């Protein structure tokens, strides 16, 4: 509780054991923060006698806490969430780019529908393999995404995400409650759609 990781580069870590979370960083504390960090080139895989259960977040596993002004890139996970896996907390002003997952959730895995819901804003999710975002429970509530740029190579079809990402139009009852997001669903990354 209350730990801070500030202005750090977390790179080239290899974690290989059963049920591990967070190949680069594991954060579990409601008042803990990760800020202004580069989390790059980390690998998360099972051990020789392990299985794939609970492998989450090769770059970062944020059980609770806050992560902002950070870059998670080029991480690889045998489980979902090549870049990041999150449960609750705040995640804003971050970039998740070019992360890979063996099970095709390269960007972000939300691991539970816990309360309070995850706060997500001003974040770029781009160039990751497969799904940009997925959730453990497809029916769990997801808070609105605000001012995010999300590119997903594989189509996101879960209604809870579509409602949270797609922008609400004033006066229209469409079930959408996102705010000012750019969402490229089932679109491969290219020079024409890069946010960089």
As a percent range, the share of strand residues is 35-45%
* Element-level helix/strand string: EEEEEEEEEEEEEEEEEEEHE
Classification by helices and strands: mainly beta
Oligomer: single chain
Please provide a written account of the structure.
The chain is mainly beta and 196 residues long. Helix content is 4%, strand content 37%. The chain is built from one helix and 20 strands. Strands 1, 4, 7, 10, 11, 14, 15, 17 and 18 form a nine-stranded parallel sheet that branches. Strands 2-5-8-12-16-19-20 form a seven-stranded parallel sheet, with no helix packed on it. Strands 3-6-9-13 form a four-stranded parallel sheet, with no helix packed on it. Strand 19 (149-152), helix 1 (159-165) and strand 20 form a beta-alpha-beta unit. The longest helix has 7 residues, at 159-165. The chain is globular. The mean pLDDT is 89.
Topology readout:
Elements: E1 4-6, E2 9-11, E3 14-16, E4 25-35, E5 38-40, E6 43-45, E7 60-68, E8 71-73, E9 76-77, E10 84-86, E11 90-92, E12 95-97, E13 100-101, E14 108-110, E15 119-121, E16 124-126, E17 133-135, E18 145-146, E19 149-152, H1 159-165, E20 182-185
Parallel strand pairs: 1-4, 2-5, 3-6, 4-7, 5-8, 6-9, 7-10, 7-11, 8-12, 9-13, 10-14, 11-15, 12-16, 14-17, 15-18, 16-19, 19-20
